[in-house]
Amino acid sequence: MAKSKLYQAYNDYPNAITYAKKAISIALDRNDHKNYYLASTTLGECYLALKNYELAYQHLVQAIQILEKMRHRIIGQEYEKQLFFEQKTAAYHAMIELLVSQNKPLEALKFADKTKARTLNETMSQGIIERVSGNPSVLMREEKRINLQIMEISRLLREESLKSQPSIASINKLNEQIASTRKTYLDLQSNSTILRPEFKDEFMSGESTISPGLKKALSKSHMAILEYVVREDGVYLFAISKSAHDTDISIKRYKINITKKELKEKVSDFHDLISKRSVSFMALSRDLYDLLIKPAENDLKNMTAICFVPDDILWNFPFQAAQGSDNRFLLEQYSIYYAPSLNTLSMLSEDIRPNGSHKNLSFLSYANPPVASKDSLIRGNSRRNAVFAPLPEAEVEVNKISRLFSKGHSRALVGEKAVESSFKTLASEYKNIHLATHGVLNNQNPMNSYLLFSDVGDEKNDSLLEAREIANLDLDADMVVLSSCETARGSIRRGEGVVGMAWAFLSAGARSTVVSQWKVDSTATASLMVNFYGNMFRNKARTRMTRSESLRQASLKLMKDNRYRHPFYWAGFIVIGNNN
Asked: pLDDT value at position 79?
């Protein structure tokens, strides 16, 4: 394979093809799936460069099929599944380029969406299957128990392998335990498929990129979807829309000529300027608007809402703070929300809960748990996450929001009462969950990121609710709001997007999350959140605003206050998931 890749790098495609074919022959003899995938991908890329589209398609399909088989064998380990796909999107990206070259935007979009939120979609799909089955709780609990068991054995295996003198006997024993537990997991999955196979087909096949429910949402809400695919040498933008007068979905594709490296620099610089409250952000804001949004301006005419499906570094770009040539922020023109993928959005938008399963309890909130160490306080700093400073504004925030809901249907646990064990017990019973506590991001291992709870009188837990624990909860919430710092952030992984708090809550069963993209100001956030909930719940159900419009109106109100005109104050929070 090394010779083939070398010839390919020098655009010597005939020799690259010759050596790739030899590599395939060797891989087949050795049953070497990895090199078979790499060689097939290289062949597809070479034939694509030579404009031999038929052979390019044939080899790229082979590469993708073997990749999916390899990935399917990684049983029950979300972390390993995420890592597996990180360096293996080349075949998908080549297929997207091939289909774009053939003017097949819908087919290209399907493959683009297959490179996003893979593990999340599978976890959500399984949850849907369990939820519509006759006895979901037993299967879900058992699957999560086995998942945790596999993760723990894998952790022990990694630790043993990294020792200076690892024990071969221990490694062999742990490998045997993993193999046995994986078999148990496979048997369980086979049983769950029998329950409602049609849901397995619909949600896990990846063929329902634009589902009937999504088409309905597009036509009713004057919404456009902008989905991005970031490649090393450029970015593809897919603009999806449907006006009230059209019968078909419109899918346009645009090529944005910027390298991944250049894009990363621009987005990172812009994020830093906004999060540090710099006044020199406007030029870069307009530059990024022209680059990422302007190509689709005609597709946004007569639209009132945009759903962004970012890719790679674009998860760190606050689209709502981009400015057009008229210097207006995008949020001043459209309500904005985000989705990990079209398939994710489709699943989150379809309410497939059985009759009678809707929650009656409306609002559960936790705020301002006491700080464990007085030495860690930083006084005079009102940013949330300021080394665990107290959050008195958060306490006022949740008390005000609670009053919007019927008496007996909301519960606010503040201060010492905001304990982790209480949340784990109560969370599954509520439609709307609001957590105004400190959040700590772990960039190295995002599933170890955590929310801080009170440690007073909670002997069962450590007061740190980690993302991995959240993902294993059984939620049925319409919305989870995390009004602490950087809860939209995490580790950006190819094939998955941002893995962190928002990912964990969606995986656990939430249909939408409201999270922050940087370290937010506590006082401004309290005002924003009270107005956000007021916009949603003061009106009768039939006249309520969508989540993104509620957030937009709350942000615009904050923007009018001269103290909070800078995007740092009003653009930090985003809606991810179902917008209705």
From this structure: 52
pLDDT digits (tens, 9 = 90+) for 266-304: 999 999 999 999 999 999 999 999 999 999 999 999 899
What is the mean pLDDT of the segment spanning 235-240? Answer: 96
H/E stretch holding 411 reads strand 410-414
Give which of 380, 396, 376 is closest to 388, Cα–Cα.
376
Long-range own/partner contacts, residues 242-247 (CB < 8 A, 24 or more apart): 242/215, 242/218, 243/219, 243/302, 244/219, 246/219
Angle at 381 between CA 376 and CA 384, to 5 degrees: 80
Q: How many Å from the N-terminal Cα to the C-terminal Cα in the chain?
A: 50
Q: Are strands 573-577 and 512-516 parallel, antiparallel or unpaired?
A: antiparallel
**31: burial class by Cβ within 10 Å (0-12, 13-18, 19+)?**
exposed
CA separation for the pair 371, 385 (Å, rounded): 11
- Phi, psi at 383, each rounded to 5°: -75, 135
Query: β-strands 497-500, 450-452: how paired?
Result: unpaired
Percent of the chain with pLDDT over 70: 79
* Distance from the Cα of residue 310 to its chain's centroid: 9
Structure tokens at 354: 């059985």
- Helices 78-86 and 118-132, packing angle to 10 deg: 140
Strand 361-367: give its sheet, edge to edge: 250-256, 234-241, 223-231, 305-309, 335-338, 573-577, 512-516, 479-482, 430-436, 361-367, 410-414
425 Cβ neighbours under 8 A, 6+ residues apart? none
pTM: predicted TM-score of the whole model, two decimal places: 0.83
| 343/209 Cα distance (integer angstroms) | 5
Q: Say what the pLDDT of residue 459 is.
A: 78
CB 313 within 8 A of CB 263: yes
Reported confidence tier of residue 164, pLDDT bands at 50, 70, 90: confident
Summarize pLDDT for 423-452 with one digit per residue, the tens. Answer: 999 999 999 999 999 888 887 778 788 899
In which residue are the tokens 């400015």 written?
Answer: 323
Helices 53-72, 78-86: crossing angle, 10 deg rounding: 160
Q: Phi and psi for 356 in degrees, rounded to 5?
A: 90, -5
Distance CA(28)–CA(392), nearest Å, equals 64
| pLDDT level of residue 194 (50, 70, 90 thresholds) | very low
pLDDT of residue 204: 38
Kindly give the pairing relationship between strand 410-414 and strand 361-367.
parallel
Containing 189, the helix (H) or strand (E) segment is helix 168-195
Whole-angstrom distance, CA of residue 160 vs CA of residue 164: 9
Q: What pLDDT is attached to residue 443?
A: 77
Helices (H), 276-416: 282-292, 342-349, 392-402
Which of 80-84, 145-149, 439-443, 553-557: highest mean pLDDT? 553-557
